[in-house]
Design a protein that fits this description.
The strands form three sheets. The chain has a seven-stranded mixed β-sheet, with helices on both faces. α15 runs parallel beside α17 and α16 runs parallel beside α18. The termini are far apart. The protein is an alpha/beta fold. The protein has 18 helices and 13 strands. The protein has three domains: 112 residues, TATA-Binding Protein; 173 residues, Rossmann fold; 63 residues, no CATH class.
């Protein structure tokens, strides 16, 4: 017992040790405050609390997925990605960086697993980024599609996601105020800087999905080689459509508009669609009907399109389901070769998506069909309410050629115009073919001479 008491430090030793520790702590705290930025201190402290002091039962979590179930892209996800790019600071040592060709500045994004701590009205909100794990092999992929694979290693496909964690007593404030703040900040950042998107359908392990890319087609109504009266009627129709939201609600119709562009190849159907998108500031969804395997898949991809967008179905005459059913029944060749027109989906489903109950799942939608052969389409697809405006994309006229010549050569008048006009009245030529001739020289005399020789050759043919 006596030996035990001898091992106990004296009061003087304890005081000296305490003094040494206190002095060391003061020196450390002074250095910590002076050398380490306040923002980094808060970040380190928040991480410490997040990993060691948090009580799981006292926190709540919101998950913001890239896709909102099967209904389409989640606007809140896009807002979060842009919002977080403004919250990345010196404490974030790992970040995604990139730059598109058309962008001026390098963009940054939070990578998977990285943490960003934000503060809103003295509430600490912790953000993390997560990416879905894909099936690792063909067998697992098959089980996944059949709903048999319940492995925790496969995340139900909603695309990438952000996860926010916070004190659960602030759940309502985060949902009703903070997330609205994120959306408002996103809209302010994007105001006046909207870049149109072109969405194309891709097939992945989750089925058909839309993949976006920036759409920067230079076409406008000013540069369209089209009859001025027709051009004006299209622009007036688009303006009228945008202004009549209340009208559509009052009469009980879905706020949508259908256009059929028909005419020979090379008459500018795709260019007109680009001009419409630029005029309205609408995104474009390019739907390839031959890639749609079933009615359910068609509904699925159409439900994932957004408001204020243009759905484009080019060369619709190339799909057997939209052919005139009576003509097919009377056409011996098609009766003898049923494989030539393989069924992918039913015409009734397509019509329902265009003009039925499915069409009401959104607003300010425009649907554009293009075809080289209007006469083969089923009349049920062409009636008003489905295709409201039929636009004939004809061969180039003299007025249309004037627009082309100004676009390529910057001229309004030329001595060869009269002879060119006379030949064009008796010759069917597309704007695309004339544009090729105009590109052969920057000299108006040479370029128009090429056009004249081209028209003479076409007349002989």
């Amino acid at each position: 017992m006596e030996e035990y008491f001898k091992r106990i430090p004296s009061n003087a030793s304890l005081v000296a040790a305490y003094s040494s520790i206190s002095t060391s702590w003061v020196l450390f705290k002074t250095a910590y405050d002076q050398v380490i930025p306040r923002q980094l201190q808060d970040f380190v402290l928040s991480k410490f609390r997040y990993y060691f002091l948090r009580n799981p039962s006292s926190t709540a979590t919101f998950i913001i997925e890239q896709l909102w179930f099967s209904f389409g892209r989640n606007e809140l996800y896009d807002a979060a990605r842009t919002y977080l790019s403004t919250k990345m600071g010196p404490e974030n040592h790992v970040m995604k960086v990139g730059k598109l060709e058309q962008q001026k500045n390098i963009s940054a994004a939070i990578p998977e697993g990285e943490i960003i701590v934000d503060t809103f009205q003295d509430i600490t909100v912790t953000w993390t980024c997560h990416s879905p794990k894909k099936p690792v092999n063909e067998r697992q992929d098959k089980k996944y599609k059949n709903g048999e694979n319940k492995s925790k290693d496969i995340i139900i496909p909603g695309g990438n996601s952000y996860q926010i964690t916070f004190d659960k007593k602030y759940k309502d404030k985060i949902r009703n105020e903070y997330l609205v703040h994120v959306l408002d900040t996103y809209k302010k950042l994007m105001k006046g800087e909207k870049v149109l998107k072109l969405y194309i359908g891709i097939k992945n392990y989750a089925g058909k999905e839309w993949r976006a890319m920036n759409f920067r087609h230079p076409a406008s109504f000013d540069t369209l080689a089209m009859d001025p009266e027709l051009k004006k009627s299209i622009m007036d129709d688009l303006d009228k459509f945008l202004e009549r939201k209340e009208f559509y609600q009052r009469v009980g119709k879905a706020w949508k508009r259908g256009y059929l562009l028909y005419g020979p190849p090379g008459t500018g159907k795709s260019t007109l669609i680009a001009a419409m998108a630029n005029y309205l500031k609408f995104d474009i969804y390019d739907l390839e009907l031959p890639s749609i395997p079933s009615d359910a898949e068609l509904r699925n991809v159409l439900l994932k399109t957004t408001n204020r967008s243009i759905l484009v179905v080019e060369d619709i005459d190339c799909n057997s389901q939209v052919y005139d059913r009576q003509k097919i029944a009377n056409h011996q060749e098609q009766l003898m070769n049923p494989k030539k027109h393989t069924k992918e989906f039913s015409l009734s489903t397509l019509l329902n998506c265009v003009d039925g109950l499915w069409s009401s799942c959104g607003e300010a939608r425009i649907i554009v069909f293009t075809t080289n052969h209007k006469e083969v389409l089923d009349p049920a697809l062409l009636r008003p309410g489905r295709m409201d405006m039929h636009i004939h994309m004809s061969y180039c006229t003299s007025k249309g050629f004037r627009v082309l010549a100004f676009n390529y050569l910057g001229i309004h008048e030329h001595k060869l115009y009269q002879e060119i006009d006379a030949l064009m009245e008796r010759t069917n030529v597309t704007p695309a073919s004339l544009a090729e001739e105009l590109m052969k020289s920057d000299d108006p005399d040479v370029a128009l001479g090429e056009v004249l020789n081209f028209l003479k050759q076409k007349k002989k043919e």
